[in-house]
Design a protein that fits this description.
mainly alpha, 2 domains, 50% helix, globular, P-loop_NTPase
Length: 109
């Protein structure tokens, strides 16, 4: 299960409450989303807190990007935005996809 979480205190608290209710056999990993760009340290701080709490976490994360708003307005996927915002945001999802494939490679037969 992919558990999305914004890098803020409220989202972190709600996400921690939710995962505490998951069955013990449930395999999950947290995906940080809508991560603000540097110099903000929010995503880095949440990542450190989750790592310290031994919460499974994707290495990849999804950046906050105006490209998502533009894609929604145009009714297209972020990968179809013809500028750098779309390409960068799509690369985030590709990184998550590669990580999911890598994880699943070890869990099915």
């Amino acid at each position: 299960m992919i558990v999305p979480c914004l890098p803020d205190a409220f989202s972190l608290s709600v996400m921690l409450d939710m995962i505490s209710e998951l069955p013990s056999q449930c395999l999950y990993r947290v995906l940080l989303t809508i991560c603000p760009p540097p110099p903000s340290k929010e995503a880095e701080q949440v990542r450190e807190a989750l790592t310290e709490a031994q919460i499974p976490l994707f290495t990849a994360q999804i950046r906050r990007s105006a490209g998502f708003t533009k894609a929604a307005a145009l009714g297209v996927a972020i990968r179809d935005i013809p500028d750098s915002r779309g390409r960068l945001a799509w690369r985030d999802y590709e990184a998550v996809g590669r990580e999911v494939i890598s994880i699943l490679g070890g869990h099915h037969g």
